[in-house]
Structure formats: structure tokens, C-alpha cells
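Sample A.
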Amino acid sequence: MNSFGRPKRSSFWLWMQSLLAAALAMVLGAVLGGLTLVTKPVEVVRKAPNLAEWDPDQVFFQPGERDSNRGRLWSQKRRMLVQKVGGAVSFTEHELNQWLGGRGTTPRIKPKPGEAAPPMDTFTHDGWNFRVADGVLQVGLPGQLNLFSDPIPVVFQARGGFAKENERWVFAANEVWLGSLPLHRFPGMLEQFRLWQAEPSRWPEEVNEVWGRVASATVTDRTVELQMR
């Protein structure tokens, strides 16, 4: 007891309070740092930049092309898959984007005078985009984070090939970016991404039915090659 009749605080509890304050500061700093990287602008380029001259701290996104003439065979190839025709089928990025690209979220409808604005999704997007180059498949999802009054442009992108997960071929990314945040550098994140997109409920029924008959999947220089059962 001190001279005023109050117990003294032990040095242990003072140390614990300092430790907890430091831990909370670290967690808050990590969250704010991650949010800063997520919202840091990603430069969209139409041509691959010269990496020797590119700022390594500036993340870029090169979307795949979607030429209706060069991708005109997509419906014929889709029909082959749906009709359970076996053998090899290849897709260019033009064909993938014609078939699966551009399915964005429903745009927000402006409310009528006097009506409350409908709630907006935290993340809205412009639809999937596919790029195939140098033996790597890139899957991109340009969109917007609706956390504040003004939407913040954000690009999700992943690059890699294919691997087998529980007897099912899945997209096995070796790079995953959310904005400028490199998610692949977090322990276990690539494994979680594989497990997430390997879940059949994530995809339309037609895609699940077709993908369940894939005997092998590879990425060549400019195409995705599927060997169907």
C-alpha cells in the first residue's frame, strides 16, 4: 500500500499493458498498411512494359485481348465440350474472353426521388478477364471497392498454370495480387486460393459439368489446352 492507501501497480502489469499496446499498434499498422497497398493504383497497360526500365514498386495489369473475329470459334468449341466430345480442345485468350469474360456485377440503379438508395456491394467488378502468354494463364478481375462515397478502382489478378487437387484440375496460381498487395507472399495464401476456387459451388453448373471431364489441363505459349475424357 502506498501513503494514500492504494495498492501499487506491479511492474509485471505495467509491462503487460505496454506489450498489449505495442501489439495492437502493430496489428493496426499492418491493417492500415495492407489497406494502403490494396487501394494503391495499379497501372493498366496494353503492352508489356520493359521491366528493366519499370519501377519495381509500381504494379501493372495487362488485360487479355477480346477480338470477336479472332475468338469467333469459341461457341463451336463450347458446344463440343457441352456435347461431351472427347479429345483435345484448345482456347486462346480471345476465345476465353468471348465465352467467360465480361460477366460483371449488376450496376447500381439510381433511386427515384424520395426513395432510399439500395445497399451497394463492397466490391463490384467489370467481369473476368483472361490473358495467355509465355505459358502462363492470367486471370484478372478489375473492379471497385465501395468503402467510401467515391468508389476506389481495384484490380484482382492471379497468374499460374494448372494442378490436380482432390482428383480435379484447378488453376494453381503462383502470384496473386489484390491491388498492389502481394497476397502470394502470405504463408498459406496460395493453398487457400486453390482450395477456394476448387469448390464446385463457386462456378456455374455448365462449367462444373465440363470441368469434371477434364483429363488434363496445360498452358502453352498462347493457349489453354484441355484433354477431355
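Sample B, a different protein:
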Amino acid sequence: MGKVGPLLTAFDSPHLSESNTGLGNVLFQIASTYGIAKSMEMEFFGRHVFEFSQKLRIQFGFHHGETIFRNCQNNSTSPVDVVVYEAPNHHKLFDITLVSKIFQLRNQSLLTQGYMESHVYFDTYEKEIRELFSMDDASKTYLQTKYPFLFDPARTLIAIHIRTGNSIVEIEEKYYRKAIQFMQETFPTAEYVLFTNDLSNTLVQSLIHSLPIVHQVQEREDYLELWAFSQTSHAICCFSTFSWWGSYLIANPQKRILVPQSSVDYMKNKYNIDEQKIRTEYYTPETQIL
């Protein structure tokens, strides 16, 4: 039986830092190769996930290997036969050429190089993906103790993610005002949970002062914030893979997920791709574009 897993783009990224582990990108690459492995009756190949976990521990003292990546490090000592590459301009789209290449080499040990940021790779295995990235007991206890409101079923919680500085698409006041208005009209008693890398930002301050009840979650290790995000009911997202995964992991079957139209415009112009493909291959069906 062959193996396939990701050659993680974050490992050698010049942007890798204590405040940016590329977690959202990594989760896409794990989930997509996991989905391919399942569909082709291959084993998941977690060698590079293990190596990346070790790098995060050595450089930053992080614990991803025992937490968010704990179920993704199997076959970590197996040799690599072939590296298979994603086609150009398919970062946010399903790449059928990549899948075909893997199928032809399915009896070997493969690593895939690419972003692979499309839920189409793993839609069939959503339940397994959720389990793969589920909270470990120690992290759950930590979050329950520090942020008990996240685990109160009587509350309607709306995540609001505002990322500044290193975002491809700059934060847009018009989008956030519109998204907040929509959520307030739809869920008038909801409380908001803020995730931001820049609480002192003037626009961030202005937005949160327009909200009735705001909780903030801030952690040094990003997977804790991701799991906190996943405990909310609905989400106002920015254009980031962290936002994508935080909202994807929300368990509420009636969740409302909002994203900015500017994210679609950026992908359409950057990769010269059809808007409908972005809406169906990158964003999930429950996503509402404002």
C-alpha cells in the first residue's frame, strides 16, 4: 500500500514566526492529502508534519505535536520516493491533475508540494477531518477554565476575526459594519468573541465599541485560538486560512459564516480564475459573501 502526505509550505516559509506558524495553510495541506489518501486506499504520510512539529517546538517552544497535529504524524520515519507538485495558480482550487499524478504513483511513498486549499479534496471525509483536528483533553480543560463562556450552551456566540498588518486584503470597515449589522439583526441577543492580532488598532477599537458584549481570546499558541473559535456558533471572517478553519470547525449545523467580497475579487484577479470556482471550491456552501 502506498502513502501520501504533505510537504508543508510553512516549514521553509520566510514568514514563519512565533506569531505566524501558517496553521491554516498547514491544516489545508494535511486535510487535502488525508482526503486523497482515503479516496485511493493509501496510508496518510505524516513524516513532514512530525518534522514541522519538532521545528515549532525547538524554535518557539510550541506544542503542536502533542495537540492539533497529534493524530497526523504517522509513518514519520518512512522514506520518501517521490514529491508531486500542485499545478500553478491552483492554490485555492481543486487540482485534478495533481490527483491524477498521485493515482498513477499510488503504490509509492509520496509527498505533495502545494497549498491545496480546497475543501473538495476532503468533503467526503468531513467527520474524520473534524476528529483529526479535535481538541485534546488538556487543551479543552485549559480553555474551559480560562474561557468558560465558550462552553455555555445557553449563549449564542459570534466569532469576529480582524487581522491587520500581514493580511493580503486589508481590513475593510464597510464589510465589518455590514457583517455586524447582519448578525445583530439575525441574532439580537448574541455575544461576540474577538480574535485579532492588533487590539490597539483604531478601527478594531471602533468596531468592538459598536458591539453589546465582547469577549476576547488571546493565546500564544495559535491552535488554542483556533479551537476557541470553533466553539462559537457563527462567524464574521476575514480573508485568512485561520478564519476558514475556525469557521469550518464550528459544529453548529445552522451556522452563518460571513466573508468579504474583496477576498473573492483578490483570488479572481491574482489567479485569473472564475468567481464561481472560488465560491464552490474554496468557500463552503454555508459561506455568505458580503
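Observation for Sample B: The two ends are 45 Å apart (CA to CA).
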